[in-house]
Specification:
disordered C terminus; 4-stranded antiparallel β-sheet; about 30% strand; Alpha-Beta Plaits; 10 strands; binds cytidine-5'-monophosphate; 2 domains; Ribosomal Protein S5, domain 2; 6-stranded mixed β-sheet; alpha+beta
């Protein structure tokens, strides 16, 4: 199945909690850039999980393996599971690729084993794998996300958002380090605690993107990537009806617009700055075209 990436149009982050996580409020949007996850099972008497990344080196802390093992713990399944993943979503990009892959594993296993768990149990497993996993198990391709990522309010997903994703070459951002950096900056009073009310965040989503006042608290602690993002912000301000932001803790920057020629307009401008980036054309997903089925 396809495991779609997400964008964060808005991300405000509260203080560090006693469990080390941060409460946040964010607007999440699934997009049509995706990994492909497949699972085959060989009946056995003991659980085993193998993961093959088709076009990337295997990563040490694999979210898919973790998800499969937790699912097996809860359900008591004891087969040999072989997971294959074709990666297209850049890693350490703030696009939720690892979380979406893990959610795809949980959805595939649910189906494979005849839906043995309640949706809430599946979401609880997802939250153990990563804070962004519940969103990918949810009902909507767009949501207002709170708590540490597990409190979801579905939004009527827009069908008219075209976009461009800019991924700086050879640069990834660790989410954990980004949160640490933000905490340090806050201790030195360099980044204020600010937010927009939930009602306003939600209603803004339906408005023209040029009117969006979304922001991302990580933007203040992006270090060496800041000059590139400043340049991209300037380009966005010159485009008609466009909104641009860093997604999650970076390093990807996204631009969205209801103007489907956005990619063309943007590429010409970005070529002029000669930045070392990969550019992807993207589109917002809505339920009908997401290929994501949550029928538990
Ligand atoms: O949940 P996940 O494993 O994706 O998070 C990675 C790291 O990001 C956590 O270990 C934590 O340091 C930080 N984090 C946080 N608050 C959140 C989500 C993540 O502090 N809401």
């Amino acid at each position: 199945m396809e495991a779609p990436a997400k964008l964060n149009f808005h991300l405000s982050i509260g203080p560090r909690r006693s469990d080390g996580y941060h409460d946040l409020i964010s607007i999440f949007q699934m997009i049509d850039l995706s990994d492909t996850v497949q699972i085959t099972r060989t009946p056995g008497s003991r659980i085993s999980v193998s993961v093959v990344m088709e076009n990337f080196e295997s990563i040490e802390e694999n979210t898919m393996e973790k998800a499969a093992r937790l699912f097996a713990d809860v359900t008591g399944i004891a087969d040999a599971l072989s997971i294959r993943c074709k990666k297209r979503i850049p890693m350490q990009a703030g696009l939720g690729g690892g979380s979406s892959d893990a959610a795809a594993v949980l959805l595939l296993l649910s189906k494979l084993y005849g839906y043995p768990l309640q949706r809430s149990e599946l979401i609880a497993i997802g939250a153990k794998v990563g804070s962004d996993v519940p969103f990918f198990l949810g009902d909507s391709t767009a949501a207002c996300v709170e708590g540490r990522g597990e409190v979801l309010t579905a939004l009527e997903a827009r069908t008219d958002l075209y976009g461009v994703l800019i991924m700086p070459e050879g640069v990834g951002v660790s989410t954990r380090e980004a949160f640490g950096e933000l905490d340090r900056a806050r201790l030195q009073n360099k980044v204020p605690l600010r937010t927009i009310g939930k009602g306003q965040l939600v209603s803004m989503y339906a408005q023209p993107v040029a009117e969006w006042r979304y922001f991302n608290d990580f933007r203040a602690v992006m270090g060496p990537l800041s000059p590139l993002y400043d340049t991209l912000d300037t380009i966005v301000s010159e485009l008609p009806d466009a909104f641009g932001t860093v997604s999650g803790s970076g390093a990807a920057y996204c631009i969205v617009s209801a103007e489907h020629r956005i990619s063309e307009l943007f590429r010409t401008k970005v070529e002029k700055i000669g930045a070392n980036v990969t550019i992807f054309d993207i589109k917002s997903l809505h339920r009908a075209d997401s290929g994501v089925t949550v029928s538990l």
